[in-house]
């Protein structure tokens, strides 16, 4: 098992392939395995790194809320890249991982060759509804853990699309989510997701983010559509792609389309033709 001691925690990571580094940061309901379709595809050309955030076994699961914050997750990624001897990388993420990617680009633009930001911005709009949804999830996790909460969460309005399109992938996603650490998830909600700045609050920093950025969102990912448009309007070197009839788990729902769009973007950045 490959583990790096960085920023006070042990983070599990995997490195596959050779070439320029491409790192993927996972969502709240995922882990490093969520990126398997991208690892298989992009490792033919790039050195692909996937890892688990703190709170997601086999990475450490600190049991204090103070050990969880957006800033800590960004610094975890920073120190992991340093640990691996990587000076610059393509940095991508989904949802919580996409927020980490954006904030990493803001904090360390010299290390960020380009950003892939998928399904980002939940909590930026409809804040009361968002907080209520998370409060319900925390209560469920405190009572019965992920074993009790997975079915309802996995069939949510922005996740049911994966079940509709690919039952086998949804079942794998379901089983993996059911095995997550309840305490790690609860503290990630309380310390990271509910306390991180919204994308609206990041507007001045986004306007100064001079990094090629690909923004990807599904048109049925309700919490993330408006924030994605906001990023497009405010990140100078950004482009936006919207997938039809697609929810939140966009890299699994439409893996071939997602991979192709991202590869075209990376090729354009490498060629110096991304506007």
Summarize the topology.
Blueprint lengths: L2 E4 L2 E8 L4 E5 L10 H7 L4 E5 L18 H14 L5 E6 L1 H12 L4 E7 L8 H28 L5 H6 L1 H12 L3 H12 L9 H5 L5 E6 L6 H10 L3 E6 L6 H4 L1 H17 L4
Parallel strand pairs: 3-4, 3-5, 5-6, 6-7, 7-8
Antiparallel strand pairs: 1-2, 2-4
Question: How far apart lie the N and C ends?
Answer: 41 Å
User: What's the average pLDDT?
Assistant: 97
Relevant CATH superfamily: Alpha/Beta hydrolase fold, catalytic domain
Low-confidence stretches: none
The overall number of domains is 1
- Widest sheet, order of strands: 1-2-4-3-5-6-7-8
The structure class reads alpha/beta
Helix content: 40-55%
Number of DSSP helical runs: 11
Can you identify the CATH class? Alpha Beta
Task: Report on the biggest sheet.
Answer: 8 strands, mixed
Shape: globular
SS strand fraction: 15-25%
Radius of gyration: 17 Å
User: Strand-and-helix sequence, N→C?
Assistant: EEEHEHEHEHHHHHEHEHH
Give a summary of the structure in a few sentences.
With 275 residues, this protein is of the alpha/beta class. 46% of the residues lie in helices and 17% in strands.
Can you walk through the features of this model?
By secondary structure, the protein is of the alpha/beta class. The chain has one domain (3-271): 3-Layer(aba) Sandwich (Rossmann fold). It is 46% helix and 17% strand. The protein has helices at residues 36-42, 70-83, 96-107, 127-154, 160-165, 167-178, 182-193, 203-207, 225-234, 250-253, 255-271, and strands at residues 3-6, 9-16, 21-25, 47-51, 89-94, 112-118, 213-218, 238-243. It has an eight-stranded mixed β-sheet, sandwiched between helices. The chain is globular and about 50 Å long.
């Amino acid at each position: 098992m490959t583990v790096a001691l960085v920023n006070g925690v042990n983070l599990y990571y995997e490195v596959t392939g050779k070439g320029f580094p491409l790192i993927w940061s996972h969502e709240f309901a995922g882990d490093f395995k969520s990126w398997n379709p991208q690892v298989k595809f992009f490792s033919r050309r790039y050195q692909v790194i996937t890892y688990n955030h703190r709170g997601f076994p086999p990475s450490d699961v600190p049991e204090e809320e103070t050990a969880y914050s957006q800033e800590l997750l960004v610094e975890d990624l920073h120190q992991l890249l340093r640990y691996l001897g990587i000076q610059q990388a393509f940095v991508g993420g989904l949802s919580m991982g996409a927020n980490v990617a954006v904030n990493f680009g803001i904090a360390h633009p010299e290390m960020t060759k380009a950003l892939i930001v998928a399904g980002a911005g939940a909590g930026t709009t409809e804040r009361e509804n968002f907080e209520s949804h998370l409060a319900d999830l925390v209560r469920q996790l405190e009572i019965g853990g992920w074993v009790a909460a997975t079915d309802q969460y996995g069939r949510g309005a922005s996740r049911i699309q994966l079940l509709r399109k690919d039952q086998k992938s949804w079942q794998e996603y379901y089983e993996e989510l059911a095995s997550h650490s309840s305490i790690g998830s609860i503290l990630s909600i309380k310390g990271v997701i509910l306390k991180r700045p919204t994308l609206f609050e990041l507007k001045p920093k986004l306007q100064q983010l001079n990094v090629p950025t690909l923004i990807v969102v599904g048109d049925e990912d309700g919490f993330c559509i408006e924030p994605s448009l906001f990023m497009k309007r405010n990140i100078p070197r950004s482009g936006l792609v919207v997938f039809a009839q697609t929810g939140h788990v966009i890299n699994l729902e439409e893996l071939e389309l997602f991979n192709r769009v991202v590869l075209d973007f990376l090729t354009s950045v490498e060629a110096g033709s991304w506007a």
